[in-house]
Specification:
It is built from four helices and eight strands, in the order αβαββββαβαββ. By secondary structure, the protein is of the alpha+beta class. It has one domain: ADP-ribosylation fold (Alpha-Beta Barrel). Strands 1-5-8 form a three-stranded antiparallel sheet. A three-stranded antiparallel sheet has the order 4-7-6. The chain is globular. 21% of the residues are buried.
């Protein structure tokens, strides 16, 4: 059973209008030049369904401890107009296996893009946080 703090944390993450994609200095130039995010892990198993897409998170500080992490901040509402966004929990099996709640226990989501990736990326970018800006 979840406690009140967990429920409030999930609620606050879901009303946030931003999603965060983390990359490194090694990849950021190609991402900006091609104006797209290509899924590196092509398929994600979510509740028995296989989706191809780009991993994002609802938590800005999810990977910000890495020295070369770059955070691409995306507008969730704009993304939802063109892509399906699915909650995803890669790390644990939950007792809530049959419900969406099991996937809300984690802050990761998938922007379902297919193999083409997330195209016209500049349409969705709100900001980019480089390591020196942390």
């Amino acid at each position: 059973m979840m406690d009140l703090f967990e429920v409030l944390q999930i609620y606050n993450e879901t009303i946030n209008n931003f999603l965060y994609h983390f990359t490194t200095l090694h990849y950021i130039d190609d991402i900006l030049k091609t104006n797209k995010l290509i899924p590196h892990e092509m398929q994600k198993d979510v509740g028995g369904m296989i989706y191809t897409g780009v991993s994002v998170t609802r938590k800005k500080d999810f990977y910000m401890n890495d020295e070369d992490s770059i955070c691409i901040i995306l507008d969730k509402d704009k993304l939802k107009q063109d892509y399906k966004i699915i909650p995803f929990n890669p790390h644990r099996k939950s007792k809530y296996k049959s419900s969406l709640l099991s996937y809300r226990m984690n802050s990761e989501e998938i922007v379902v893009t297919g193999k083409k990736g997330l195209i016209n990326l500049d349409k969705y970018i709100v900001n980019i946080i480089y390591p020196e800006n942390k």
